[in-house]
């Protein structure tokens, strides 16, 4: 059976939630492999809206196994709150349909406090984080002092880990003008949350490999976008994990041979949330159209997304980095009514033409887009379910994108409804 990795091929917010939900109906296992509860997926199922931050999108589907892998940093309080919220919407979550990697790192309250304290420093350039502690938790993971899910089961280990952690954090907090961590309260909070989390803890690597050998279809669900990758994104305005497809295997304890198809989710224009370079950003009426018609607000933060024309340079680059086999092009209907469309086909920097985004931060901030103009369309593409339902100009726009990014369209999404999808290539085809 084919196993599929879904990654965002821009700065995130590409509509991964709908696509993952659409695919999850045919998958047996749906696994998150990186990120934290700064990720946001909005699902619309039979008219009901589900907003997820940490749980895999497959959790709303009966008969599916959802997995939070070791590559995810887990806020246990956010997890419990999300489980309780979904329960009110009729979604039952038990250890039978959700498993969490025993070696997944925990996000503690002190991580969020450190995150927000750093962003508040006027002398330091803001990165635009969500302030939820994701970055500091990954720092502690790499620094070998993080608390992991399995540690919650043993009081002696937990005390040792907390002691080591606070030696580091109290020094940082002093420099930021924050008080020392109340160790008694932290320990009490961890003891209280432990029995709510531990029933879901399993050796995910073993369960995932067993599922693969049994011929189960696995869907790996990425969070954030490829341009927020800590190595290949617009550093330092990035997230703290590896968001490209290669981390699907390491983030769940599987080998690279477990990946059969990589699906890149791509919006028909470009958006990003937070700080950082954005060569194609628009500040005119078109930008306002994209933001308004596209309802460009962050699922998790509610922050307005910055909007701009489609950047083929960036998407070609991210498709190469993740080995994308096909893209799912979303939100085509937002472009309805625009008389002309522009696509960024190259950059100009200091008199030179570039066909890629340079690594140096100052150069990323200074590149200017070179546009190709195409005819728009006045007809509606919303709800189209076949190529015949699309205006000719819309079809030309899609075909030109395929040429420029050197990658075919596998799916075309024409509304938030899961059935409003044109299937070209089935990622799960054997």
TrEMBL record:
Mg(2+) binds at residues 13, 40. One of its GO terms (biological process) is IMP metabolic process. The keyword Cytoplasm applies. Gene3D superfamilies: Adenylosuccinate Synthetase, subunit A, domain 1, Adenylosuccinate Synthetase, subunit A, domain 2, Adenylosuccinate Synthetase, subunit A, domain 3. IMP binds at residues 13-16, 38-41, 130, 144, 224, 239, 303. Its cofactor is Mg(2+). GTP binds at residues 12-18, 40-42, 305, 331-333, 413-415. Belongs to the adenylosuccinate synthetase family. Homodimer. This is Adenylosuccinate synthetase. It comes from Aliiruegeria lutimaris.
């Amino acid at each position: 059976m084919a196993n599929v990795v879904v990654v965002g091929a821009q700065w995130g917010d590409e509509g991964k939630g709908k696509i993952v939900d659409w695919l999850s109906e045919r998958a047996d296992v749906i696994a998150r492999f990186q990120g934290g509860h700064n990720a946001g997926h909005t699902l619309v199922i039979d008219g009901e809206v589900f907003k997820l931050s940490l749980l895999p999108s497959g959790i709303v589907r009966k008969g599916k196994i959802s997995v939070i892998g070791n590559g995810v940093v887990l806020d246990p309080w956010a997890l419990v709150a999300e489980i309780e919220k979904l329960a009110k919407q009729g979604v039952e979550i038990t250890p039978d349909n959700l498993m969490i990697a025993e070696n997944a790192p925990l996000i503690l309250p002190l991580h969020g406090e450190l995150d927000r304290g750093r962003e508040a420093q006027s002398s330091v350039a803001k990165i635009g984080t969500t302030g939820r502690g994701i970055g500091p938790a990954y720092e502690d993971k790499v620094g070998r002092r993080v608390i992991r899910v399995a540690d919650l089961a043993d009081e002696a280990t937990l005390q040792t880990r907390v002691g080591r952690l606070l030696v580091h954090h109290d020094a940082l907090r002093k420099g930021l003008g924050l008080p020392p961590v109340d160790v008694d309260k932290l320990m009490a909070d961890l003891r209280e949350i432990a029995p709510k989390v531990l029933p879901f803890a399993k050796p995910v690597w073993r369960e995932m490999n067993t599922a693969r050998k049994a011929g189960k279809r696995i869907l790996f669900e990425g969070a954030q976008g490829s341009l927020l990758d800590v190595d290949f994104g617009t550093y330092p305005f990035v997230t703290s994990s590896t968001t490209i497809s290669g981390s699907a295997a390491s983030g769940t304890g599987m080998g690279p041979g477990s990946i059969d198809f990589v699906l890149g989710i791509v919006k028909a224009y470009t958006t990003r949330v937070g700080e950082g370079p954005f060569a194609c950003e628009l500040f005119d009426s078109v930008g306002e159209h994209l933001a308004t018609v596209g309802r460009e607000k962050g699922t998790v933060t509610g922050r307005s997304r910055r909007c701009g024309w489609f950047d083929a340079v960036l998407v070609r680059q991210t498709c190469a980095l993740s080995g994308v086999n096909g893209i799912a092009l979303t939100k085509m209907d937002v472009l309805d009514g625009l008389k002309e469309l522009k696509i960024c086909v190259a950059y100009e920097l200091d008199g030179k033409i570039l066909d890629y985004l340079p690594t140096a931060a100052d150069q990323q901030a200074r590149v200017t887009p070179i546009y190709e103009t195409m005819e728009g369309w006045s007809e509606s593409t919303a709800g189209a379910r076949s190529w015949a339902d699309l205006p000719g100009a819309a079809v030309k726009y899609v075909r030109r994108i395929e040429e420029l990014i050197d990658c075919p369209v596998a799916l075309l999404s024409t509304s938030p409804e899961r059935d409003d999808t044109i299937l070209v290539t089935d990622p799960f085809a054997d």
